[in-house]
Amino acid sequence: MNDKERVAQHAANRIQNGMIVGLGTGSTANCFIEALAHRHREEGLEIEAVASSVVSSIKARQHGLPILALEQLTRLDVYVDGADEVAPDLTLLKGRGQDLVREKILARASASFWVLIDPGKRVNRIGEKYPIPVEVVPFAWQLVRQSLEAIGGKAELRQNAAKDGLIVTSHGSLVLDAVFPESLDSATLDTLLNGIPGIVEHGIFSQLADVVFCAENGQVEEKRK
Ligand code: 5RP
Q1: What is the model's pLDDT at position 98?
Q2: Which of 125, 150, 155, 175 is the most buried (most CB within 10 A)?
Q3: Counting atoms of ligand 1 from 1, which one is nearest the CA of 29?
Q4: Are residues 26 and 52 in the same domain?
Q5: How many structural domains does the chain have?
Q6: What is the pLDDT of residue 99?
Q7: Ligand 1 site, residue 107, Cβ cutoff 6 A
Q8: What is the pLDDT of residues 182-213, one digit of tens each?
Q9: Cβ neighbours, 10 Å, residue 193
Q10: Residue 4: CB within 6 Å of ligand 1?
Q11: pLDDT at 58
């Protein structure tokens, strides 16, 4: 078992009968889906799940997890997902996988949001390793980019892997990957980005994570807010 599988297993072991569980997106979330499905199948763990993306929904169904549509959701006990960066105050950067609209909705709706990482995801400052993903309404991308420049940012439209087209999210949005001066802290940036018309969502997850599980050398460490 590698560290990613170990942290996923650690989280899956904490899921209890009767819970409604939000499933994140990405390689770590995939390990969690597998670990949870194993408990559902082998131990008869009774849960329902809601997925943050089409890929996670397909994976969960393939592994036999009962899936609820987000539209049916009236409560969410826990949301479990990975992250690209985690700051000391548990602010997260997410969205390399382009499904951050549903991810943030589920993170906010959950009674508890658990984040699964390895030590390489820890940073001192959000934006240290990756640009901030900013999902934009396609017809507004140019104006949003100007608004980002007005607050000191530099942004480029995210291209597909072959670099012959643009990434389009499951909501039909484009993604601007934006870099900002270090002097702009993540809380300020969060507020500024929330106020720009045309931005559908962005990758700064402030004050949402309740606990971060970090796997390293076979051990899992928990950090709570
Ligand atoms: C997707 C995300 C992922 O959780 C994040 O990119 C981490 O992915 P991985 O577990 O593959 O490292 O935010 O939008």
Answers
A1: 75
A2: 175
A3: 10
A4: yes
A5: 2
A6: 81
A7: no
A8: 999 999 999 999 999 999 999 999 999 999 99
A9: 22
A10: no
A11: 97
Model pTM above 0.85: yes
Residue with tokens 């990758």: 203
Cα angle 47, 105, 107 (rounded to 5 degrees) comes to 60
The yes-or-no answer on residue 103 being catalytic is yes
Q: Is the CB of 25 under 6 A from ligand 1?
A: yes
If asked whether residues 97 and 195 sit together in one domain, one would say: no
In this structure, the chain runs to a length of 225
Q: Flag whether pLDDT at 148 surpasses 80.
A: yes
To the nearest whole percent, how much of the chain has pLDDT over 70?
100
Within 8 A by CB and 6+ apart from 93, the residues are 83, 84, 85, 123, 126, 127, 130, 132, 203, 204, 205
**Residue 96 beta carbon below 6 angstroms from any ligand 1 atom:** yes
Please identify, by atom number, the ligand 1 atom nearest to the C-alpha of residue 100: 14
- Pair (97, 10) in one structural domain: yes
